[in-house]
Design a protein that fits this description.
The chain is an alpha/beta fold. It has 18 helices and 19 strands. α14 packs across α15. The radius of gyration is 30 Å and the shape is globular.
Length: 620
């Protein structure tokens, strides 16, 4: 274009997004000292969006702290959104997908800046989190209210918990095309079940920009795939978090909400080759170590298949200093063995808090709206309760110098765990169990192992088939309470037997042997059935594990070269069967109704008619 510089041309093709998560508007709003903190930080985020001249704001859930926000919180949120996101500035983003399906509770079934009755300068796109999820009569979220009023574009909302389909919001600016996927919060246990049952699917974009040229390879590279998710990222148990490796490999970047510690610098997933950015919360909602990290939001710039994320520090966040001290490490220094340990720890804590208040001064940014009173949390790890003192009375000493007077000090007991004798497997028995021809199921391997090992490591209470039954219920029936129920049943029966026999202490082991001889496995199964507990039949039946042994699988396709922030991304070519379609194509079943869906896990059962990208917990 004549009279246009290269920089200006590039700016016309770069999608600029301000990224933030977990704003928790209304947190502690009735606190006389901290009540305005969440709103002050959110206003700074909106001010940054205006000053950075972004095309849109992307929120990763938990906009509000409560599912039913107070009138005060809702009023202030609406006021701030109208003040900073409304205006005459034109929006350069073009929506290419079906807007009626993308945006929930939008009055005109369209993005808010295309509503002729609204004047939007900076559109806000948001998913919901666990704090502002749909609830109550009508299953409405606070975001539904903001969507209906035209303030927020609410996407990524699930309506059917038996199957979750994630369809992207497709948008374009110049030469850059963005596929924005949203996964609003689902309870981690429920999401884990959906994933295991292959009920989470990604609908990938068709070649909407290039008509019907059929060049899927080129189309795939033209789209930048961005996912916003609000789930546990840290491993809190097998059903209490979403493993990164279960996310599809075609993604470029994942914005991860829900976790409050700031890890905004994109981290590459070595297995799936996408990047993850965790902005964290904009206001501390707990006095924990992770919340004490410097708060940031991100400026995300996307140009075709490249991206750059610039951290923007928040300057209005209240100073917060966290420190954890193990009192046992200072026992000699403080002389806790002799004298009044409580008084000595009290003086020690007072000195520490004084030093922490001094350190908090360094966190003052000079911003006129930043609160001056800091948050101070001193966690004292103790083993002897004689070291404790009245924490509330201690906090009153700093009533005019800290924001959290009631909980400056937190006592946390260190639980001493004695080392137990290591359990060594009988490797020879395990080898013989694995080599058995008729042991193809996990529960059969458990049964055979204990039968092989009983001469060296005999079971004193359980039958080997009881442990096999337990394994069967856990794996086949997805019964999370199987172990507890069977152990409780055996315990009750054994106690009843011992109470009847009343053996001497030295004869308890012998009496337990008689118990095992008296109650055979078959008898116990019948007892379990009479209690209404469904048990596994003795005869063999067709099993998933058995059928998986000979099932064919489709190898996952990888990428030809690594990609980084600000560098182009390439992919390894898929088979001709896949590339002939106008979109990414993944399936988990030999019979499928649509070739345009991708699941989070790949099934290993049956053969597939079409080569595809396979998303599984063991794919590359």
């Amino acid at each position: 274009m004549n009279g246009t510089t290269t920089a200006e041309q590039d700016a016309d093709n770069v999608i600029r997004i301000l990224v933030a998560t977990d704003n928790h508007l209304g947190y502690g709003e009735k606190d006389a000292v901290r009540g305005e903190d969440s709103f002050t930080a959110f206003e700074e985020i909106l001010e940054l969006a205006v000053s950075e001249d972004v095309d849109m704001i992307l929120l990763g859930g938990d906009l509000f702290h409560d599912a039913v926000p107070s009138q005060n919180a809702l009023h202030k949120c609406i006021e701030l959104l109208r003040r900073y996101t409304f205006g005459d500035r034109p929006v350069s983003l073009e929506i290419l997908s079906d807007q009626g399906q993308c945006f929930h509770n939008a009055v005109n079934q369209s993005v808010n800046y295309e509503d002729p009755n609204l004047n939007i300068a900076i559109p806000v796109f948001s998913i919901h989190g666990n704090h502002d999820d749909p609830s109550g009569f009508g299953r409405l979220s606070s975001l539904d209210l903001l969507s209906t009023s035209g303030l927020v574009n609410y996407f990524g909302r699930w309506t059917d918990l038996t199957q979750v389909e994630i369809s992207p919001v497709l948008m374009r600016k110049g030469e850059s095309q963005l596929a924005l996927y949203g996964l609003s919060h689902i309870h981690d246990g429920r999401l884990a079940r959906l994933i295991k049952d292959f009920k989470v699917k990604f609908n990938c974009p068709e070649n909407v920009a290039n008509g019907e040229d059929g060049n899927e390879s080129k189309e795939e590279e033209d789209w930048f795939h961005l996912l916003v998710v609000h789930q546990n990222r840290a491993d809190r148990g097998p059903k209490n978090y979403l493993p990164e490796d279960l996310l599809p490999s075609f993604l470029h970047l994942v914005i991860w909400g829900h976790e409050h510690d700031c890890r905004i610098e994109p981290e590459e997933n070595a297995k799936k080759r996408f990047y993850v950015s965790q902005p964290g919360s904009s206001v501390p909602t707990s006095l924990s170590e992770g919340e004490a990290k410097k708060k940031h939001v991100g400026l995300l710039e996307i140009y075709k298949g490249k991206f750059k994320l610039k951290p923007l520090p928040l300057e209005t966040v209240r100073p917060f200093v966290f420190e954890s001290v193990v009192l046992a490490d200072h026992a000699d220094e403080l002389g806790l063995v002799e004298g009044d340990a409580s008084t000595k720890v009290f003086k020690f804590a007072q000195e520490r808090v004084e030093a922490m208040i001094e350190r908090a001064v360094a966190q003052h940014t000079g911003h006129p709206k930043q609160p001056t009173l800091p948050l101070i949390r001193l966690r004292l790890l103790y083993t002897d309760e004689s070291c404790m003192f009245n924490a509330i009375r201690f906090g009153e000493m700093f009533s005019t110098r800290v924001a959290n007077v009631q909980d400056v000090v937190q006592f946390s007991k260190v639980v001493k765990r004695t080392k137990t004798e290591a359990v060594n497997l009988d490797k020879e028995a395990l080898r013989r169990a694995l080599e058995a021809d008729n042991a193809t199921r996990v529960e059969e391997l458990v049964d055979r192992y204990f039968e092989e090992a009983k001469s060296n490591k005999p079971l004193k209470l359980f039958h080997s088939k009881a442990l096999a039954e337990m394994t069967y219920r856990l794996l086949e029936q997805r019964d999370a309470d199987a172990a507890e129920n069977i152990v409780k049943f055996y315990k009750e029966k054994a106690v009843d037997h011992l109470m009847e026999a009343m053996p001497n202490d030295e004869n308890i082991d012998e009496e337990l042997e008689r118990f095992r001889a008296l109650y055979k496995h078959g008898d116990l199964l019948k007892m379990l059935e009479t209690q209404g507990l469904k048990v596994k039949k003795e005869e063999k039946s067709t099993s998933v594990l058995g059928s998986e042994a000979n099932a064919s699988t489709v190898p996952a396709t990888g990428r030809g070269a690594a990609r980084g922030r600000g560098t182009a991304r390439t992919r390894a070519g898929a088979t001709a069967g896949t590339r002939g379609k106008g979109q990414l194509d993944v399936t988990v079943s030999s019979t499928r109704t649509s070739g345009r869906q991708q699941t989070l896990l790949s099934s290993v059962m049956g053969s597939r008619n079409t080569a595809s990208y396979v998303i599984s917990d063991d794919s590359d």
